[in-house]
Amino acid sequence: MKLTLSPSKYDALSYCPCFSYPPYESDAASEGTLLHESFESGDVEELNDEQARVVAKANEALESLKTGWLGWNPDDRVGFREHNEERVKNSLGHSGAMDRCLVAIERKRAIVADLKTGRLGLIADAKESLQLAGYVDATFGMYPDLEEVMALLISPRTNELESHVYVNSDRQAIHDRLQKMADGAENPFKK
Known about the structure:
Structural class: alpha+beta
Strand order of the largest sheet: 1-2-3-4-5
Radius of gyration: 17 Å
Strand content: 15-25%
Shape: globular
Number of helices: 5
Number of strands: 5
Order of helices and strands: HHHEEEHEEH
Distance between the termini: 21 Å
C-alpha cells in the first residue's frame, strides 16, 4: 500500500514514521470540523455559545493581523487575496487544505493560519510545525514574489497564538525539512 502524505499528517509522521490515523469518528473530531467550517464561513448559527466564542476569538486574532501586518483592504480584490479551506500542493507534490491564507500582493506578505480547536492547547510552536511549513511552502509556490509568509497557529480555547515569519530565502530549507520527513515516512526502516 502506497503511503499518502499530506501536510496535516506531517507533524505526526515526524515523531512516528509509521503513523496512520485510525478510521474512527469522535465527538471532538466532529466538533473540530464544525468549528473549522464556521471559521471559514463566519456562520455561527449552528454553534453553542462556547463554540461561537471560540470562533469569534480566532477571527479577532486573525483580523488584527490582517489589518496591522498585511494592511488589509477588503475592497481591493486585486491586491489582496483570501484562500479559505483551499486545497493546495506544495513543492513535494503533497496536497492539503489550508484553513486560511491571506495574501497582500503589493506588500509581498502573506499569513497562513491554522485553527486548533482542542482543549489541551498547542503541542508545537509555529516555527516547528511541519504542517504549517508545508502550507507556507505551497504559498511561496503560488506566489513566488512574496518576501514574507507568517505561519500562524491559533488556539482560542487556551488563549494561545503562535507565529513565525518565513522569508523567501527560507524556501529551500523548508523543502529540505519536508523532504527529510517524507523520506523517513516512505522508508521508516532505512538506516
